[in-house]
């Protein structure tokens, strides 16, 4: 069906997005050695991607809702892939840190379309009983990007040089953007109607046009719901961006795993398990919808995705055992992936045609948390020499998110408030 083709396109773009994004974190140790970076400088570099990512959130959400998720995603793919290629130039620059930061900001700006584009594609084209499955499939491919990056990057870095990782991954993105655009224009994947067209159709039928998303947000109850959703998304972003960027450094400093290949293999196994679980929970969630109200299904998924990671983060703050550490990262991330069957489908279900824009608001909170988390992690690790405080803070933040979701998220449609 047409929607399956669209999900395939945006899903593969998500894979490439994470492939490009994760490479910097995997290469943190060799970059520290080659450019004599401090932990604070590394924290700034790791967070620079998120600066551009944050700037682009609202425009990406509005564009996705208006023009459709697939075309917006492909434009973003082209931008972030070219920026990824440009990151390789830091190798040959007299000021490598500045070049790396500038290209990572641009890469973040391009990839800011990723989540809003997926939300808009699912909301506009996927049947109600398939939405969780389509969403989790897209994010499963997203996490596969982590697997590919962790398996391939150490070898590319060792045999060709770290800069070739960025050059190769960026080039793949440019090629896929061109091929996907051709497939999209030559097939039935094109979206039949934009938001503007739907409003015109509503007017022709005598219905009132839908209010704008900004008019919707002026309602007190809507704003409260969106603010709580934003906190929950900031929790997701804080945990995800911190782990994605700092797992190799944590393994080296706290667990004593110095080999980039060993750390990459361990991390790849973790993300592979996370990817399989992401796809699995979407299927289960869709089946549960015939037996439970949708918001109760989402509540179960969100409870699992917050309370178990909170416990795992606390254990990580107390251990130096490689086995215990890797096991906790594995269990924490696998359970964290339940949010793809909870948070993201819930946004689509309560926001409807505003999904892309609402998700851009909540994702902005997640990005801000990711920026703060990366900088704070660099500072705390540089100050204390370990990740103890980092994981204790994460544990507390996730526990609060679990409580807020269970109290306030009852499935009320934003437009009906």
From TrEMBL:
This is Major facilitator superfamily (MFS) profile domain-containing protein. The chain crosses the membrane at residues 7-29, 35-55, 67-89, 101-124, 136-156, 162-184, 222-242, 262-285, 323-343, 364-383, 389-408. It comes from the Eukaryota. Residues 6-413 form the Major facilitator superfamily (MFS) profile domain. One of its GO terms (cellular component) is membrane. Belongs to the major facilitator superfamily. Sodium/anion cotransporter (TC 2.A.1.14) family. It is found in: Membrane.
